[in-house]
């Protein structure tokens, strides 16, 4: 009996470890290629409009399809749903490599199509993984395994931009795109040995009407709590400015500071390191009695870093300051999502959470593409540094704009008092 338990435990561990390794390898290669495409667009076009449009294309499938992805995932074989997006993403990367190898044109519009197809494929991967991990993991180890997966995601975010920039300096974009095919082949090979339950919910249908009804219910529940509704609306306004600036870091390095792709990769990696450190600070010291204080402080920190970045002079010394400011910006970023999520989780019963979170995601996501469409062309007209300055001032104002409303600034205090 003891031997059987040990054997089962080893099998479960092997299953989980293979899944995590496969996702790390496919994730790092896919993200490296994604960054390489952005580096290529930045170097070839030097256009804020082009970069903003590329970022918007990468966001739209997630915004539009995410509400329906969960229902779709429930109806099909999970292993297939992990394999197919990797193959599709690798396939379009391979086709783009072939085209660029045959033609010396920049092929901007073809790159937009490739980014869109990859984004559609990846939209279904995350909910698939989120459903697989609890299905193959013992309940008492679920938190630990989710923690491991979070570490892998953080490592990918840190390594991919630097790795992409490093390789971009040594090999052609045509060769670099083929890395995605290698990653997909390794990932698919490892997935072959992973035992994933093949349960499919055949009774579940794509209930579009129900999905929209749930979203309406979520909006109504959010609106019923005035303080929280104000916090979310002002957060959505901040997204209008934060998202375009986040897409313009590479152009700031190349165009304003007149440096190389490798330098842009360092800035992106430092931003990701800052995000990781911010997440660790929250996990270690996150038991604040009033979460609105660190939440609003994050607006002030992010707005200040954007503003100072926009005021820098185009020198190498200023670039070093810019890189440090990028790391501080990254550090403040997790405070928005994490603290808002924890307040929402405490505000509603578990049966309503999925509806509320889905509606909140829609509210916070939609301003991003609007900002990208408006601010990208403005960056080409005024200069990318001026966009950092304008966005920084706008984000700074979000803190006092929230504080003005008593129901918003006291929301967490009242929430903890009532609980």
Determine and state the CATH class of the largest domain.
Mainly Alpha
Whole-number tally of structural domains: 2
Provide the low-confidence segments as ranges: 1-5
Mean pLDDT: 85
- Radius of gyration over all CA atoms, rounded: 22 Å
**Tally of DSSP helical segments:** 19
Measured by DSSP, the beta-strand proportion falls in under 5%
Please identify, by name, the CATH architecture of the largest domain.
Up-down Bundle
Supply the CATH superfamily name of the largest domain.
Answer: MFS general substrate transporter like domains
* Structure class: mainly alpha
Give the N-to-C terminal Cα separation. Answer: 46 Å
> Secondary-structure element order, as H and E?
HHHHHHHHHHHHHHHHHHH
For the sheet with most strands, the description reads: none
Strand segment count: 0
Pfam families: MFS_1
InterPro entries: MFS, MFS_dom, MFS_trans_sf
Main location: membrane
Protein name: Multidrug efflux pump
Your description of this structure?
The chain is mainly alpha-helical and 419 residues long. The protein folds into 2 domains: 1-196, Growth Hormone, Chain: A; 207-419, Up-down Bundle (Growth Hormone, Chain: A), CATH 1.20.1250. Helix content is 85%, strand content 0%. The longest helix is centred in the first third of the chain and has 44 residues, at 2-45. It is globular and about 65 Å long.
């Amino acid at each position: 009996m003891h031997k059987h338990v040990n054997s089962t435990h080893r099998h479960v561990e092997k299953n989980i470890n293979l899944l995590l390794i496969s996702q790390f390898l496919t994730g790092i290669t896919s993200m490296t290629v994604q960054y390489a495409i952005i580096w290529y667009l930045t170097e070839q076009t030097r256009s804020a409009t082009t970069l903003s449009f590329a970022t918007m294309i990468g966001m739209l499938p997630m915004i539009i399809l995410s509400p329906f992805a969960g229902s779709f995932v429930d109806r099909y074989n999970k292993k297939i749903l992990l394999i197919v997006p990797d193959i599709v993403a690798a396939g379009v990367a391979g086709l783009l490599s072939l085209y660029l190898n045959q033609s010396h044109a920049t092929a901007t519009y073809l790159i937009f199509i490739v980014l869109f197809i990859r984004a559609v494929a990846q939209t279904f991967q995350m909910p698939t993984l989120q459903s697989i991990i609890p299905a193959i993991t013992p309940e008492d180890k679920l938190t630990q395994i989710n923690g491991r997966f979070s570490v892998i995601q953080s490592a990918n975010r840190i390594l991919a931009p630097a790795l992409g920039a490093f390789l971009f300096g040594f090999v052609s974009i045509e060769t670099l795109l083929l890395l995605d095919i290698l990653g997909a082949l390794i990932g698919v090979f490892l997935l072959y040995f992973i035992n994933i339950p093949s349960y499919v919910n055949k009774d579940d249908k794509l209930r579009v009407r129900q999905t929209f009804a749930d979203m309406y219910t979520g909006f109504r529940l959010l609106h019923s709590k005035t303080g929280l509704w104000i916090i979310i609306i002002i957060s959505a306004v901040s997204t209008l400015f934060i998202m375009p600036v986040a897409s313009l870091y590479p152009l700031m390095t190349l165009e304003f500071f007149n440096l190389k792709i490798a330098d842009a990769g360092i800035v992106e990696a430092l931003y990701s390191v800052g995000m990781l450190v911010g997440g660790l600070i929250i996990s270690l010291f996150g038991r604040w009695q009033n979460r609105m204080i660190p939440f609003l402080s994050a607006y002030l920190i992010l707005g200040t870093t954007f503003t100072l970045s926009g005021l820098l002079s185009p020198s190498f010394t200023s670039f070093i300051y810019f890189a440090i400011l990028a790391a501080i910006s990254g550090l403040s970023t997790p405070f928005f999502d994490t603290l808002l999520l924890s307040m929402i989780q405490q505000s509603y019963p578990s049966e309503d959470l999925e509806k509320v979170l889905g509606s909140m995601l829609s509210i916070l996501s939609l301003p991003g593409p609007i900002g990208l469409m408006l601010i990208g062309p403005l960056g080409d007209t005024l200069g990318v540094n001026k966009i950092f300055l304008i966005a920084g001032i706008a984000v700074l104002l979000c803190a006092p704009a929230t504080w003005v409303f008593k129901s918003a600034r006291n929301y967490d205090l009242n929430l903890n008092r009532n609980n």
